[in-house]
Specification:
This protein has about 475 residues and is mainly alpha-helical. The protein has one domain (about 5-465). It has helices at about 5-35, 35-50, 70-95, 115-135, 140-165, 170-190, 200-215, 215-240, 245-280, 285-320, 325-345, 350-355, 355-380, 385-410, 415-440, 445-465. Helix 9 (about 245-280) packs antiparallel against helix 10 (about 285-320). The longest helix has about 40 residues, at about 245-280. The model has no long low-confidence stretch (mean pLDDT about 85).
Length: about 475
């Protein structure tokens, strides 16, 4: 990728990091003013919305940044918005007609009345995705970063205020939706004029034409994302259904603190990579670009998640209170899953560039079947830890297999990548030895967490001096 693309990735990643920093700083406050059951309601309803949100625009928004001309980009944008309205309306109808009793209990009375959150969140996510792709097309990466920070700040402020006011779970959901809305409006305001939705026959004809031209996004990419979304959100929903809101809240906090920052940073890098991947392919530079990207994300993952996994229980206990230590144990179990998912996310943009959506869908369907069977088997033991560990094992294997497949179709040299990645893994493990000794010696939670954070900081500071390590 060109140097300008690298700088763009840094800008977008910094915005994602800043937004997640706000959410992470607010988390210790939220865990002290909300109960695990209330946070479990948030985690479960958010997971329900996330089953549909990734495909709320039926993936037509992905056609916006790669459209050949301005008119085609406008038509794709309108198509994405119309698709979002349709999907959100269907979700609202399902919520209205369905009989839902998930999470109902002594501590979560009235949860079914909060299900309206699901279609509203789907609507905001779809429209935000379309606007985001419009911003990427016009290289408004700073606006993208700013919108993430606005969303996070608004969400945290409203949730804390609502918690202090004693609103409970509705306050958490209100903060989530308010953050989504203001983040979307901030991005829209800092973009070139958005295409308007008109009812003229000519415009409808262009929208239909755009749908036909970009049908592969709907036929292959959207189902693939739906399968992936189901696999990603299934753990929270299963824990909520098989156990209770308390367990779902513990898992949801661990998932939020570790997985969401990784996902946002990965998505930010992916968005910038996607905007230039087609050009790199045309110039026969795609293998080299993909190789640099994989090496960068692998190094970032190894030097972050290995120390973080070691200190997770103590970190959660210190940051959120002793009752949240179990969330740190869950986090240890799904750490390999989060790490491999992070590495695969940016380079997965190659699938759309090379038109490999069909093969990706087959791969994800196999994963879905394996994950469901594994979850059902683990659930028979009624052991939350076993369920989390089993799902993490299946998820890690899937993403490792997917990365191998992506390396193959992109034309990268698997042996070179494997050799360098093993070397980086060895360095990360070696750097973690003092931390392991400290944990075995039981030197105290504060000292263990401090040493773990220092290990991560030292590793990345050293790697930043090696200019090629994080060069994407």
């Amino acid at each position: 990728m060109k140097r300008s693309s690298t700088l763009s990735a840094i800008v977008v990643s910094m915005g994602a990091l800043a937004s997640q920093a706000v959410l992470l700083v607010s988390a210790p406050v939220l865990t002290r003013i909300y109960t695990p059951a209330e946070l479990g309601v948030l985690a479960t309803l958010t997971a329900m919305a996330a089953l549909v949100s990734p495909i709320s625009a039926l993936h037509f928004e992905l056609a916006v940044p790669i459209a050949k001309g301005a008119q085609q980009a406008e038509d794709a944008f309108r198509l994405a918005c119309i698709s979002t309205l349709l999907v959100a309306s269907i979700a609202a109808l399902v919520v209205y007609l369905g009989s839902w009793h998930l999470l109902e209990g002594p501590d979560t009375e009235g949860v079914t009345n909060l299900l309206l959150y699901v279609p509203v969140s789907i609507l905001f996510t779809g429209l935000s995705g379309a606007i985001l792709m419009w911003a990427i097309r016009h290289e408004r990466h700073v606006a993208n970063a700013g919108s993430k920070l606005t969303a996070a700040t608004t969400q945290s402020s409203v949730q804390i205020g609502a918690g202090l006011a004693g609103l409970g779970a509705p306050g958490l959901l209100l903060g989530q939706l308010t953050g989504q809305l203001l983040g979307m409006l901030t991005l829209a305001r800092n973009c070139p004029a958005l295409p308007r939705l008109k009812t003229s026959n000519g415009q409808w004809g262009n929208v239909i034409k755009s749908a036909i031209e970009n049908k592969n996004f709907l036929i292959y990419s959207a189902p693939s994302s739906a399968v992936n979304a189901f696999g990603a959100n299934m753990p929270v929903l299963m824990l909520a259904a098989q156990f209770d809101a308390h367990v779902a809240g513990l898992f949801g906090m661990g998932y939020r603190v570790l997985q969401l920052p990784a996902r946002l940073v990965g998505q930010s890098i992916a968005q910038v990579f996607y905007s230039t991947a087609a050009q790199e392919r045309s110039a026969n530079r795609l293998p080299a670009a993909a190789e640099r990207l994989l090496l960068a994300t692998s190094s970032l993952a190894l030097y972050t998640f290995i120390p973080l996994g070691l200190i997770a229980p103590e970190l959660f206990s210190l940051a959120f209170g002793k009752e949240w230590r179990e969330a740190g144990v869950y986090a240890q179990y799904f750490m390999p899953w989060v790490a491999t998912a992070f590495v695969s996310m940016p380079v997965s943009m190659i699938v759309s560039v090379l038109g490999e959506q069909k093969n990706e869908l087959v791969l994800q369907l196999v994963y879905l079947v394996a994950a469901v069977l594994a979850a059902l088997a683990a659930g028979l033991e009624h052991d939350a830890r076993l369920t989390v560990a089993t799902l993490s094992c299946v998820g890690s294997c899937y993403f490792a297999l997917k990365i191998t497949w992506l390396i193959k179709i992109s034309g990268c040299d698997l042996k070179i990548l494997l050799r360098r990645t093993v070397g980086e893994a060895g360095g990360a493990i070696l750097l973690s030895f003092p931390l392991i000794i400290a944990i075995v010696s039981e030197v105290g939670s504060v000292n263990i967490v401090a040493l773990g954070i220092c290990s991560i900081a030292i590793a990345h500071a050293f790697n930043l001096r090696k200019r090629s390590v994080y060069e994407v």
